[in-house]
């Protein structure tokens, strides 16, 4: 096959399909967690009841006043941080860590606020709750369900460790359930997370009965997370909250005397491979303890059905048909900040994980090529792969982040869904009224003003944090081409549909 020219003029050749991971640049930048300089109360309504708590703050439910969508918010009291000898710079170091995380098994963060007394950190809300809550209601779980949970946790951990990030507080409460039927999970709470590249970890962080014994020596590595996963696996399998001979208050160093007695009745229904993996995760000597990637290759996980080929093929077909024009790309960026079908996101997550064979949280050309090679000829696989990678093509040898994958794989028809169009229209109209009009009763004016002032769109989003400003500008320019000072909802919908279908 000859060279195929990319949409931005860069040439892709068959020889470029092999990649060197040290030389890669992300084809699309991930969503960045930015500070919102508005007051938190002006943007969100806060519920009184707690969803949970993190290492340094409570988690509550809040509702976006514009979109009426729910998010979870972690609220950190600055006075509490100061009494714990924690400076405000600590919070920003955690934001830096969160900005490096972009994975389907890690909760999505949106924005943060800093005010005189509090930090507010916004993230996705998952109403199913955490794994502890699920276990209390559904124990005992079938072993295949336990296997799936541990497998997902190891994938998330392998990704974090590949990014040189140790979580240091993996526990049941820090694992959200996103779908109760198939038990899909997301890792949360990175308050105690730390970089470990080039140096050992120090500090006694975490929850006592999940902490690895070596953490008490103040000199350890990322395998402390593997021990924590072993504790999680033990609790899910047995229903017991502590390892044998341990309690919530006992020093983790006592785990050096840990002995797992598999002759006890509670282990009779647990398979030999499960017990074998548990022993290896709870290996007291860190050098002998498995890495996350090594654990993922354990025989216990062979019982899982990894055949998501058809799901992945359907997602790649959507990418193959993706309209790469600026208007469509801009519309997707906006809509993805509003709402996306949960079922669609689940299928996109499955496809991404299926393609990511080395668990590094990024898709390379070879990943797509090897996928197509399972059912197609070498020449067909090369052709399909080239077309797929062109959809992400900012560079000839592109690396696709999870955010970029979701953006391109989202069904274009969702953009013109009546509910999404109404959300977008109301958002634009709300912003226009609240930012540009001097009104006493904003709610009354919003209800009464059923038109969108096109001429003010550019200024409307000058301070917008959650939504891609370039995307808004593209649509503002497009709408202004119609020479209309204002648009009703039906006119707006027709123009958007026309722009996307071009």
From TrEMBL:
InterPro entries: EF-hand-dom_pair, Kinase-like_dom_sf, Prot_kinase_dom, Ser/Thr_kinase_AS. Gene3D superfamilies: EF-hand, Phosphorylase Kinase, domain 1, Transferase(Phosphotransferase) domain 1. It comes from the Eukaryota. PANTHER family: SERINE/THREONINE-PROTEIN KINASE. One of its GO terms (molecular function) is protein kinase activity. It comes from Stentor coeruleus. Residues 45-301 form the Protein kinase domain. This is Protein kinase domain-containing protein.
